[in-house]
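User: Can you help me understand a structure? I only have the sequence.
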Amino acid sequence: MRFVTSVFATLLVTMAVLSAPLVADGLILPDHPELGWLSVVYHDVSVEIRDGMVTTCVDQLFRNDAPVAIEGRYVFPLPAGAVVTGFTLWVDGEPLEGSVLPADEARAIYEDYVRRIIDPALLEYVGRDTLSARVFPIPPGGERRIEITYHELLTPDAGVYRYRYPLDTERFSARPLESLHLHVDLQTSTPLRAVYSPTHPISVIRSADTAAAADHDETHVLPTTDFLLYYSTFPEDMGMTLVTYRAPGEDGYFLMLINPRWDDAVDALPKDIVVVVDRSGSMSGEKIEQAKRALSFILENLSPEDRFAVLSFNDAVEALHSELTPVSVDAIRAAVSWVQGVDATGGTNIDEVLQVALSMIEPSERPAMVVFLTDGEPTVGVADPVTIAEHAAVANRAGARLFCFGVGYNVNTVLLDRLSQENRGATTYVLPGDNLEVVLSTFYLKISSPVLSDPKVSIAGVDVYDVHPATLPDVFRGSQVLLVGRYRDAGPSEVTLAGRVGDAETIHVYERAFPEVDLAESFLPRLWAARRIAFLIDQIRLYGESEELVDEVIRLSQRYGIITPYTSFLVEEGAEAYTDEEMAMRLGTATSAPAAGSQAVQSSNALRDLAGAETVYSGGVSVRAVEDRVYFLRHGVWTDSEYIDEETVDIAVFGSAYFELLVRASWVAPHLALGDAVILRAGETYIRIGAEGATEWSSDLDAALAGSL
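Assistant: Let's start by predicting it. Here is the structure, written out as tokens:
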């Protein structure tokens, strides 16, 4: 078996799901860009949402880092339907006013600037009303502060609201932003369910059943993607949000978010939990002390109806009790005292301790879990990972969830990942320098209150396939379960969520529609593809290569622009020139690596991130995505991922035919904004933008592009 790990360490960013900017936040277009661009010092955004009424307040500070004075025009492409109620440009402490330009006037500004600076980046803003103001000379080292307030009304679709904030300064800030802060104050009149961003990691704090606050913070960053926020309101105790995307003539994509009611009125189920800690010699020092503090935290935060056991192991297994013990003040006090007496010596007998721990849990209606912590590979007893996994499966008669924690780099990632996958859990790797106590205690708070066990989703009315995760995790209070997949049919459907609450079966039924065409949520194809690719590579890594799995990974990577060890060559100059033998050699190098070590841990973490991706990240320098299309930079040309070697309609960049194309098909603007050499698809026709081609629009172009635009 060959393990797919060797090049993940250098691909942790580009393996993420790809997305491209659609519009931009405010920027200053200098009259003489050759003198330099301004830097955005900070960008603060405060959003107040009351049901569907939204007020957005923007505060930006620009600085001139050039050695000469710079003047120009400030532009802020507005979201559709936005109404500006406040705009202030501060000059020497005095405010100046701006004006809103309709889309056609704003277009003239953008196209004029594109012609002058020979850079199509601004074309992505064509078609939007724009807030504009004249910026008078800013001296070297000088600053200008701009504040904007605008309002918009969001319309829910089946209870789901979608808020977009334009956020893209990648091409227009001379330096990375020193700080970016976005705060959302969200209140609804009916119970609030999902609060989710597919584009940016957010921290969410819920203060009431109808209120939440979401924050995103970054420093020293060049934003490349608009901020998207979804929130939903449903009366059910177990809310379900459905988001879809479907291009004409293609199968669709769907995303389901399952959210239990967040507050304390939702009863957590009594659970059985066994905590296992490695006390081999390599755990000595700070690691064992952090582990003991973390275990004490878990014990002291068990629910009164829980049952528990604590095991430690090195060459042999030790336990305070031979069976699960009900929670009581005395039992917890004794367990904490026992944990504090654990010392680190000896070897690592993983096989025996897992069999003991899993066999302690008898089949019952209770959710059951084993938390397993180790910092090494098996050195005592059975050492073969396949055999250890088989023994664990036999011992796990109760179907307990196995959550593995690998501490440091000297762990067998294939063993731990296989154990957690085959026992419906998850693996977390604690890297050197991480605080084990914080990681483990934070994890326990997330899984401490199960509200629905053994959840299963069925969909009637449409044909769904390639759904991930294939097996849903248990639903915990305050958690969010994300399910993605493809669908073939369209129309109304009945979505059923079934599971167990204690010893009782429970069923939640939702009426939802899967549309024939839905182009709004263009992030969904890459979100699905990320999880699909992660699943396939995990199967290869854990169980061995097959031609079928490798072929599908390569196909998905090419189509969706998600770089893998099998397809890293796709973004390299001259990739098309590789011979079959060279490709085979590269793939062989990419797919052989040890199961332990820093590279193995980083690779496994990359796969976990990809498999659980909730956010859509921007591409790297050689891969970009625009809406649902992916482009590779090949020989200096941004090329549609599905283009092979077909005939193209050639149009010269920046000629009158180029700008006429924008008039006839405004949807091409963000694609042309990639650069001055692009091959894009229009219907079944490919258009090549470059130095050569038609300069004037003609009847020949009309004929060549008939039905494509």
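Now, to help you interpret it: The domain at 272-450 is CATH 3.40.50.410 (Rossmann fold). The chain has a mean pLDDT of 83. Let me know which part you'd like to focus on.
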